[in-house]
Amino acid sequence: MRRCQTGLSLVELMIGLALGLFISAAGFAAFAEQWREHRHATLAMRLQQDLRSAAELVARDLRRAGYWAAPAASRPNPYAAFAPQAAASDAASYAYSRDAIENHVLDGTEQFGLRLRRGVIELQLGAGGWQALTDAGTLVVTEFLLEPRLQSVSLLEHCARPCPAGVACDAHVNVRHLTLRITARAASDASLVRRIDTLVRLRNDEVAGACPA
């Protein structure tokens, strides 16, 4: 008996190839989407970590602003000033100081600063120039803001004598804080933007007024 041998027709072969290509394309699209999501999550995590590290470096240096090693009761603290400085249109700059030589005089080596310049936060190291705190190849800082906050705390309850009736007493301490805000975008993905806000407590407080005599 003769057995009939049959194979795939051209139409069946073309349909099979089309189905195979369709399944392969769907799998590749799913893989590409997962890869994009993974890359986006990795960039977001790295951006947030770099922002947190930059904020910690800035806060650590700012906490020493106004430090005076040997304060004199007869004179005000020459290192207490903290103020924005004139800068270029693409920069935000702040200046402060702290005691290093203990001569009660603000010297050039005791002047420090922070600024945003061309997307990079920079720290002024006294007379040593400016040093970058952020990497422009990883993130581009678009906002760098420091806003002083002053909280007055009365010291009258700690005075040896109460305030006489009808007399205004003004013994208090000025507690200084700085609101720090940094906004940045990923250098390789402008759509990925993160912001960090923190409150920095300056360690040197200003005592004003006096207890009742």
| Major β-sheet profile | 5 strands, antiparallel
What's the assembly state of these chains? single chain
Radius of gyration: 31 Å
Proportion of strand residues: 25-35%
DSSP summary: helix tally: 1
Q: How many angstroms does the end-to-end distance come to?
A: 131 Å
Overall pLDDT confidence: 83
Beta-strand segment tally: 9
Helix content: 10-25%
As residue ranges, the low-confidence spans are none
The dominant shape is elongated
Helix/strand-derived category reads alpha+beta
H-E order: HEEEEEEEEE
Main sheet: strand order:
1-2-3-4-5
SSE layout and pairings?
Layout: H1 10-62, E1 83-85, E2 91-97, E3 111-117, E4 120-124, E5 130-132, E6 139-154, E7 172-186, E8 189-201, E9 206-208
Antiparallel strand pairs: 1-2, 2-3, 3-4, 4-5, 6-7, 7-8, 7-9
Overview of the structural elements:
This protein is an alpha+beta fold and 213 residues long. It has a domain at 40-146 and 179-196. The protein contains one helix and nine strands; from the N terminus they run αβββββββββ. The chain has one helix spanning 10-62, and strands at residues 83-85, 91-97, 111-117, 120-124, 130-132, 139-154, 172-186, 189-201, 206-208. Strands 1-2-3-4-5 form a five-stranded antiparallel beta sheet, covered by helices on one side. Strands 6, 7, 8 and 9 form a four-stranded antiparallel beta sheet that branches.
